[in-house]
C-alpha cells in the first residue's frame, strides 16, 4: 500500500509538471561575453553552468555564450576556466532577457563557488548563510580516501569516528551518527547509522562533488541534522551535445598499509534527449598494520554497482538511478579479552532514486522519490553460517520543492516531505524492537536581496509517529510514540565588496530518540558494552549561532567561523560502574542533559607565487555536559595543519603537476567523560604528487602519496579501538584515473 501511494504521487507530479511545461511559454535567456580582466580579450571555451537546471554552455570564438529557455526566477551561474579564478553571478529573470558580461581574473586557485546544500536553491558560497565546504574536481581526486569519512577529515570542523579503516563516520563540530544527516543523490541515507560501528553505505567512487554544511540543518532536512549535513552529489548525465556518444572512465586505487586494491569502471553516454551512466566498483583489503604490529581480523571487501538513465528536455529533466552497496567488514577486538576473535558484518544496501525537475509557468518544481533497503547481518566468528543479529530497514521517501519567482526583492521555496520506514529484527539477538515510522513535514524558506545585504530564513514543521511492536526479548510492550517539532533559521550576509562577506546566522534543530536509545537491553557486541535504554527520553532540541568572515580573491581565500550550539535534552550513554556477569562487558545507561558545544574554525589558502600555494586549516571544539558539569564524550582534539603545494601548469608532456607536503599537529585530549580513554598529541607528515598525462585522445590522472611518512605511532581520539590499538602506520597510495572515448 505504501509503495502504491508513493508511486501514485510520483506519477501525479510527473504528469502535472510535464503537462504544464508543455503549455508554458519560455520567458527568455541569459547571454553575454566573457573577457580576460587584464587584457580585455575574449576567452574561448569558458564553462558556464546553471546548477538549478543542470544546464550549461561554453563561450565561442568571440567569448559569447547563451542559455535560453528560462522562466522567471533567480539563478546562480558559475563561470570556470583553467588558469582563472572561478566567478559566480546571481541573476534575476522577470520579464525580459538578461545580458551578463563577465571578466575573469587569472589565478591558479581553483575554488568552488556554488553550493546546492545550505539553501534550497544553488547559491554563491560567499552568500551561504551556514559555514560550507565543497570538495570537487582536483581537490576531491587528491583527497578521495577509502571511505566518505576519510575523504572529509581534511576539512576544518570535520573529523571522523573510526573502527579500523573500513568503518568511518563523519563528525561535524563534535556531533556524529544520528546528529549528522548524509544525503546521497538527493536522498537521505537511511540505514542503521545510530550505532558508532555502523558506517554509511556509500560508494566513495560515485561522488562527483561533496558538500559539507556545518551547523543545524533541520529546516531543510528535518530530524537529526543537529551537527550538519554531508551531501554527496552524483555527476550529471551526459548530454547529446557532448561527444563522443560513449565515454568510459577507469579508476584504480592502491593502499600499501592494508595491501588494498580498489577500482571503479564507469560507462556514460547520450543519444538524443536520453543520457545514461553505469558504474561498478570494488575493493579488497587485508589487516591494518600499525607501527607496533598488525591488527588481526581488520580486513574488508566490497562490491558495488549503479545505473542511471535520464531524459533532458527544454522544460527540465527526469532520471532514475538504481544502486547496490555490499560489503563484508571484519571487526578487530581487544586481544586481552579474546585473542582469536573473528567477528564480522555483512551489509547490503539497495536504493532506487527518482528525480524530476521541471520549469513551469511561475514555478520551478523539484521532485525526488526514493526507496532504500538496508540489510545488516553480524556474525560472531569467521566460519559462522548464521548471523547472531540481522536488521532489515526499508524506507520510502518523497520530497517536493517549488521555487517561486521573485516578488519584488523576495524569492524562495516551499517544500513538503513524506517518508516511511520499517525496521525488522530477524534473529534471536535483539538490539532494537521492530517498528514503523512515518514522517510528514513542510517548510517555507525565503530570501531578501537588499543590495549589499542578503537576508534569508524560514520555518519548518515536522510530525513523526513511531509504532513499536512488542518484544519479549527486550521487555518492550506494543506502543505508539508521537513527536512534533518546529524548526526555524534566520541569517544574513553583508557583502561590502565582491570579495568580502560578513555572515551571521541563528538556527534551531531537533532529533527524536532512536529505538535503540529508548529500548536497548542487552549486549552490544560492536561496542563491547551492555546497553540499557531509557523509555522516558524526549527529543533533543538545539539552538546554534554562527558568526563568520569570508574573503575570496584570486590569490587569497579565508573563511573563519565561531559557533555556539546549545542542546537541551542531549542524549548520551553513561557508564553505571557495573559489569554484566554473563558478557563481562561494562553496563551503560542512556540519559539526558543540557549540553553546549562551541568552537572556532579557520581555513585559508594563499597563492604566494604563480607556482607556490599554502593551505592552512585549524579547529578547536569544546563540549560540556552542563547538567553534570563534566565534558561530553568523544570530542575531537584541537588540530591545525599546514600544507605547501608547488605546481606547474605543464612540464613536458605532463599537465597540472603538483607536489604537496602537509604537516598536521593534533593536541592531546585530556578533557574526557567518565571512563573515557585519554589520548596524547602527535604530529603527522604526509606528502604527495600528481599530474595529468596524455593517453590516446584524453588526459589521464596519476596521484602518488605517502601518509604518515614518519610511521608515527599515534592514537586518534575518535578511534573506537583507541584503548587497545593504534592508528595505521605508513601508507603508500597510488590513484590512477583513465578516461577513454569509445565511440
If you had to describe this structure to a student in words, what would you say it looks like?
The protein is mostly beta strands. It contains five helices and 44 strands. The radius of gyration is 25 Å and the shape is globular. 47% of the residues are buried.
Can I get a quick summary?
This protein is mainly beta and 743 residues long.
C-alpha geometry: globular
Instruction: Please tell me the overall pLDDT.
Output: 86
Our count of helices gives: 5
- Percentage of residues assigned to helices: under 10%
The strand count comes to 44
Strand content: over 45%
C-alpha Rg (nearest Å): 25 Å
How far is it from the N-terminal to the C-terminal residue, by CA? 45 Å
Structural class: mainly beta
Could you give the topology of this structure?
Blueprint: H1 2-23, E1 28-36, E2 47-50, E3 55-58, E4 64-70, E5 73-80, E6 87-93, E7 98-99, E8 102-104, E9 114-115, E10 123-124, E11 132-136, H2 137-143, H3 148-152, E12 158-163, E13 167-172, E14 180-184, E15 187-188, E16 209-214, H4 218-221, E17 228-233, E18 246-255, E19 260-271, E20 274-285, E21 288-290, E22 293-295, E23 300-313, E24 316-330, E25 344-360, E26 363-379, E27 389-407, E28 410-425, E29 435-450, E30 453-468, E31 479-494, E32 500-511, H5 515-519, E33 521-524, E34 529-532, E35 540-553, E36 556-579, E37 586-609, E38 612-625, E39 630-631, E40 639-651, E41 654-666, E42 682-695, E43 698-707, E44 731-741
Parallel strand pairs: 1-7, 1-8, 14-17, 34-37
Antiparallel strand pairs: 1-4, 2-3, 2-5, 5-6, 9-10, 11-16, 12-13, 14-15, 16-17, 18-19, 18-44, 19-20, 20-23, 21-22, 23-24, 24-25, 25-26, 26-27, 27-28, 28-29, 29-30, 30-31, 31-32, 32-35, 33-34, 35-36, 36-37, 37-38, 38-39, 38-40, 40-41, 41-42, 42-43, 43-44
Amino acid at each position: 500500500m505504501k509503495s502504491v501511494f508513493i508511486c501514485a504521487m510520483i506519477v501525479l507530479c510527473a504528469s502535472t509538471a510535464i503537462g504544464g511545461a508543455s503549455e508554458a511559454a519560455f520567458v527568455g535567456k541569459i547571454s553575454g561575453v566573457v573577457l580576460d580582466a587584464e587584457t580585455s580579450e575574449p576567452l574561448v571555451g569558458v564553462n558556464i553552468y546553471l546548477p538549478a537546471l543542470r544546464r550549461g554552455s561554453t563561450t565561442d570564438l568571440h567569448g559569447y555564450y547563451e542559455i535560453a529557455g528560462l522562466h522567471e526566477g533567480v539563478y546562480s551561474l558559475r563561470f570556470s576556466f583553467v588558469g582563472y579564478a572561478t566567478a559566480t553571478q546571481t541573476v534575476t529573470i522577470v520579464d525580459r532577457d538578461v545580458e551578463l558580461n563577465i571578466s575573469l581574473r587569472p589565478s591558479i586557485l581553483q575554488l568552488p563557488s556554488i553550493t546546492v546544500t545550505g539553501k534550497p536553491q544553488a547559491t554563491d558560497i560567499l552568500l551561504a548563510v551556514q559555514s560550507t565546504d565543497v570538495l570537487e574536481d582536483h581537490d576531491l581526486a587528491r583527497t578521495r580516501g577509502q571511505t566518505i569519512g576519510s575523504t572529509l577529515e581534511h576539512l576544518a570542523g570535520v573529523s571522523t569516528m573510526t573502527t579500523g579503516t573500513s568503518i568511518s563516520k563523519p563528525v561535524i563540530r563534535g556531533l556524529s551518527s544520528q546528529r549528522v544527516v548524509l544525503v546521497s543523490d538527493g536522498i537521505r541515507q537511511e540505514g542503521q547509522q545510530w550505532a558508532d560501528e555502523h558506517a554509511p553505505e556509500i560508494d566513495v567512487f560515485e561522488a562527483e562533488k561533496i558538500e559539507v554544511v556545518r551547523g543545524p540543518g533541520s529546516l531543510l532536512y528535518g530530524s537529526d541534522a543537529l551537527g550538519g549535513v554531508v551531501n554527496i552529489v552524483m555527476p550529471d548525465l551526459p548530454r547529446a551535445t557532448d561527444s563522443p556518444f560513449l565515454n568510459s572512465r577507469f579508476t584504480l586505487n592502491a593502499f600499501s598499509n592494508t595491501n588494498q586494491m580498489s577500482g571503479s569502471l564507469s560507462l556514460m553516454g547520450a543519444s538524443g534527449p536520453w543520457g545514461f551512466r553505469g558504474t561498478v566498483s570494488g575493493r579488497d583489503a587485508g589487516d591494518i598494520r600499525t607501527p607496533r604490529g598488525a591488527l588481526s581480523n581488520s580486513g574488508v571487501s566490497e562490491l558495488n554497482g549503479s545505473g542511471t538513465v535520464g531524459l533532458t528536455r527544454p522544460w527540465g529533466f527526469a532520471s532514475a538511478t538504481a544502486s547496490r552497496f555490499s560489503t563484508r567488514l571484519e571487526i578487530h577486538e581487544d586481544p586481552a579479552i579474546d585473542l582469536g576473535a573473528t567477528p564480522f558484518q555483512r551489509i547490503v544496501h539497495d536504493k532506487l532514486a527518482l528525480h524530476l525537475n521541471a520549469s513551469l509557468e511561475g514555478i520551478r518544481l523539484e521532485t525526488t522519490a526514493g526507496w532504500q533497503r538496508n540489510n545488516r547481518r553480524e556474525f560472531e566468528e569467521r566460519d559462522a553460517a548464521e548471523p547472531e543479529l540481522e536488521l532489515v530497514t526499508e524506507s520510502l521517501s518523497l520530497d517536493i520543492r517549488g521555487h517561486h519567482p521573485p516578488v519584488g526583492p523576495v524569492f524562495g521555496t516551499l517544500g513538503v516531505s513524506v517518508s516511511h520506514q520499517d525496521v525488522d529484527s530477524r534473529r534471536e539477538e535483539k538490539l532494537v524492537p521492530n517498528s514503523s515510522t512515518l514522517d510528514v513535514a513542510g517548510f517555507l524558506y525565503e530570501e531578501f536581496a537588499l543590495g549589499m545585504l542578503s537576508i534569508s530564513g524560514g520555518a519548518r514543521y515536522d510530525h513523526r509517529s513511531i509504532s513499536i511492536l512488542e518484544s519479549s526479548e527486550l521487555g518492550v510492550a506494543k506502543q505508539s510514540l508521537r513527536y512534533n517539532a518546529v524548526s526555524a533559521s534566520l541569517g544574513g550576509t553583508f557583502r561590502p565588496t565582491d570579495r568580502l562577506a560578513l555572515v551571521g546566522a541563528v538556527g534551531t534543530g531537533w532529533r527524536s530518540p532512536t529505538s535503540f536509545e529508548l529500548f536497548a537491553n542487552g549486549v552490544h557486541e560492536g561496542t563491547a558494552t551492555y546497553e540499557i535504554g531509557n523509555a522516558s527520553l524526549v527529543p533533543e532540541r538545539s539552538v546554534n549561532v554562527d558568526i563568520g568572515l569570508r574573503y575570496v580573491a584570486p590569490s587569497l581565500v579565508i573563511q573563519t567561523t565561531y559557533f555556539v550550539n546549545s542542546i537541551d535534552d542531549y542524549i548520551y550513554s553513561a557508564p553505571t560502574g557495573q559489569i554484566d556477569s554473563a558478557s563481562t562487558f561494562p553496563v551503560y545507561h542512556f540519559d539526558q542533559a543540557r549540553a553546549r558545544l562551541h568552537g572556532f574554525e579557520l581555513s585559508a589558502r594563499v597563492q604566494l607565487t604563480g607556482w607556490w600555494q599554502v593551505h592552512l586549516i585549524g579547529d578547536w571544539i569544546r563540549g560540556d555536559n552542563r547538567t553534570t558539569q563534566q565534558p561530553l564524550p568523544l570530542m575531537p582534539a584541537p588540530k591545525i595543519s599546514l600544507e605547501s603545494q608547488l605546481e606547474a601548469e605543464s612540464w613536458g608532456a605532463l599537465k597540472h603537476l603538483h607536489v604537496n607536503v602537509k604537516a598536521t599537529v593534533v593536541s592531546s585530549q585530556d578533557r574526557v567523560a567518565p571512563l573515557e580513554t585519554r589520548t596524547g598529541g602527535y604530529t603527522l607528515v604526509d606528502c604527495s604528487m600528481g599530474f595529468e598525462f596524455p593517453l590516446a585522445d584524453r588526459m589521464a590522472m596519476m596521484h602518488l602519496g605517502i601518509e604518515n611518512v614518519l610511521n608515527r605511532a599515534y592514537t586518534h581520539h575518535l578511534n573506537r579501538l583507541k584503548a587497545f590499538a593504534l592508528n595505521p602506520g605508513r601508507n603508500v597510495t597510488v590513484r590512477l584515473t583513465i578516461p577513454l572515448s569509445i565511440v
